[in-house]
Amino acid sequence: MFPDSPGDYDPASGCDARFNKLAAIHNRALKLMLRELRLRYPGRSLVYADVYHPIIRAVTSPARYGFGSTPLVACCGGGGGPYNFNYAAFCGTPNSTTCEDPSQFVSWDGIHFTEAANELMAHAVLRVLMSTSAEELSSQQA
Known about the structure:
mainly alpha
């Protein structure tokens, strides 16, 4: 499951490049599906909110978003290694550890995001919803 060589990781983010590519494919397909649904159901509000890029930006520029210097290291885990992750030593298992300040991390346990990362994604979604609502209101009044 994990890449075997450092070349398998995105040099900018430190993420597994295969998963980044999969996310890009998924998001393109989702946008196409939304376009089709908008044609099929005119008058309905269907909004795409990008939560991938805010996380990538936070990982590549962690200080800018209030994260520490190792945002992808699992805050809670027992795996050691560069990401403190191991399928056999999840958060909560014997010998796992928890960081002192989860707000400095993007990854809670190597699988789930921290509250701080979820807040970043929520703000991204809300920005899209707020701007979409404003556009819809102005077009309805015209």
